[in-house]
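re the bet — no i am not wrong, look at it urself. input seq straight from the record:
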Amino acid sequence: MFVDFHSHSTFSDGTLTPIELVKMAKDKQIQMFSITDHDNVDGQLEAFSAAKSFGVDYVAGVEISCEYPTMLDMLGYGYSVGNNFLVETLDELKKYRINRNTLMIEKLNGLGMEITLEEVAAQAGGDVIGRPHFARVMQNKGYVSTKEEAFEKYLGDDRPGYVRKKRLTPQQAIELITIAGGVSVLAHPKYLNLERTRFENLVKHLKEIGLWGIEVFYSKNTFSETVFFEEIAFKYDLFITAGSDYHGANSMDVSLGMNVDSEKILKTMQYFR
């Protein structure tokens, strides 16, 4: 069964609009689809409208960056797009992100790069500014040869041009999604980089505070990782999702859509229908 519960549009760090993504999902015959932009739901109404036009089974999505020693992102699904608490909380994070972009410009300027926020905003084309947009400007001006070099030397976590995001705790993210009428799923658990016992303890704790599912099937997983995450999901009676984490041209090695055994994803699809 072809599904995809994890993708990004121009409302965060993807290169395709919600309409373009939904059309691609239709063309690829994806049977259930979600756009999960980082820390905002601004593109959801456009996505729902496109899904209705193209006849795509669509689920409201979002990916919330959480405060944790390693990468922990919480996916939210099926929430009320107009929920005031959700929108206002994410708007506060957006305001901080704008200030963060200014601080990153100042850091890069201090490293000898003549880059302006206006140039980065132009690269973003009116969409939410992300680190890939900084990287493109740096590449275009000859400060780096590739986007990968920009991240390795300057923009990656703890690199000299990086400024930390303001993040919610995992519990705050789960509570936010729950209050908005949605369910919470632990995104790409491989990036937590936890050994098995610590990962299981984390999942047990998150389950106790409202975790609904795990992104068991992920485009970058190894076979053994998928098997392990599926075992943990089964052990703790958690729903299973599948996501490509497609970003368009910002993820050239990833294609939209995940081919998953129908028996393993059917329960999740039935929940959202």
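see?? Residues 84-110 form the longest helix (27 residues). told u. also The CA atoms of residues 18 and 47 lie 5 Å apart. so pay up
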